[in-house]
Every structure is written in C-alpha cells, then in structure tokens.
Amino acid sequence: xxxxxxxxxxxxxxxxxxxxxxxxxxxxxxxxxxxxxxxxxxxxxxxxxxxxxxxxxxxxxxxxxxxxxxxxxxxxxxxxxxxxxxxxxxxxxxxxxxxxxxxxxxxxxxxxxxxxxxxxxxxxxxxxxxxxxxxxxxxxxxxxxxxxxxxxxxxxxxxxxxxxxxxxxxxxxxxxxxxxxxxxxxxxxxxxxxxxxxxxxxxxxxxxxxxxxxxxxxxxxxxxxxxxxxxxxxxxxxxxxxxxxxxxxxxxxxxxxxxxxxxxxxxxxxxxxxxxxxxxxxxxxxxxxxxxxxxxx
Length: 297
What we know:
Blueprint: H1 3-11, H2 18-32, E1 33-35, E2 40-44, H3 47-59, E3 66-71, E4 75-81, H4 83-93, H5 113-126, E5 127-129, E6 138-142, H6 145-156, E7 163-167, E8 170-175, H7 178-188, H8 191-240, H9 248-259, H10 265-270, H11 278-295
Antiparallel strand pairs: 1-2, 2-4, 3-4, 5-6, 6-8, 7-8
C-alpha cells in the first residue's frame, strides 16, 4: 500500500456534519474526474474512497448513480451520474456553479468548518503525498487552469502556500516543506499522519547528529594518526644523532612514543613516571619538534 493510499484511507474514516459532507463531496468532484451538468464520473482504485462517497450520497439521500468495477492488474471502481440526474446531485451539494470553466463556488461553504472538509475532498480526489521517510512532497493535480488558480487563492486564506508547475498540460500544485505539509494534514483531519512527519523529522535529525559525531571522531582519529606519524619521523631523526641537547624527560617521552605509535597523548602521559597530563605531553612534544627544526636538516 502506498503512503498516499494510507493517508486517504485515514481521511475516509473522518466523521463530519452534513454541511461538511456536502463541501467535501464538492471538493472531491472538482478534482477527481468529470464534473459537469452533462456528466459526473469519477474512478478510484481505493475501495475506501468509493465507500466514503457512497456513504455521503446516502447522507444526501441520493442514489441515482451507477457503480461499476473493472479488473486488470488492479481493481478499479467507477461511479457515474448520468445527465438526467446531475442537476439533482448538484442541488443537493448546494446548487453550486459547475462552469464551464470550473471554478470554486464559495456558496458551497455553509460554515467555517466546511472549508477544511472541502480541502479534504480535494486531496482525496486529486492529491498525492510522498512518505516522509523518503522526501517531503505533497501535490494536487488538475487539468482546469482557473480551478488551480482558485485553489491557490483558497489555500492562501488559510496560510497554506501552494507552488505551481505545468507538466503535460496538467497543473501540479505542490508543497515541499515538512511544516506546511503538516499544516495541511492537520487542517484536513489527518492527525495521525502528522505524527509520521514528526517522527521522520526526529529520525532524520538523529541520523544527522550521529553522522556529525562520527565524522568528527573520524577526523580527530586521522588528525591524531598524522600527528603521531610526524612525531615518530622527527624522533627517529633525533635518535640517529643521539638525542643532542635533549633532557632525560624528553628522551623518555620520545622512546615511549617510538614504542607506542598508536597511543594518544593522554595515553602516553600515563606511561610516564610521574604521570603527565595531555597538555603536559603536548608541551613536551612541541619542545621536541622545535628542537628538530633547529638541529635536524
């Protein structure tokens, strides 16, 4: 099951008042198929979606439609309202305008709650959403240009900002930010899907933090290895010359470093008697390095 299908099935279990059912059905019909006074037809591969709008038809006391099922690789459901019955359904929705051209008729929204129901129907009818563990992407498609412009303005009223692109004659309205997608899902009633995005964000943040720590540790290891190799190279040069002008403390540290090339400065300090701190070892190593610069060519 795709993530889009999962979200739509969740929305199909959302209960609502009769006014919101009309608004949701209106949004669904605008974005799901053919919506005109000559014919109303929509299809879906999701049985939950078909059941949802059959239930809304029953709530509106409308049964003048035909449901057919076709099976190829998957099962597809078709719902058709013929010309002699379209006016009846349109009046039950709210006697909305159906164009042409198709536009959003705000008379369909009896109450403030109807706007959210309308957008829910729009998404169920023409929406797609990518699983948040893959990418942040939500889109709504339509072949009706003025309807797309209307939906952009409609969403702006609720602080939802859709971007738009044309592809093969189809307007694709989309969102690519997690925050905005969560706002849309919460607004249309898909609260459980919002948690999916929150969890995905937390997981991505955790992975990024782990990667940063690992990369930092790796960089520190490589830095320590390079430093140790350089120290050994310098000490070998001094040793060949008999450690000229070096104090016993520096010679002792130099010998321990040659015997333990893998040790950190802190570990080297613990081999000394008395034990020396990391900064103390670093200070002595700097003395050895400075001496080499002066004495070894």
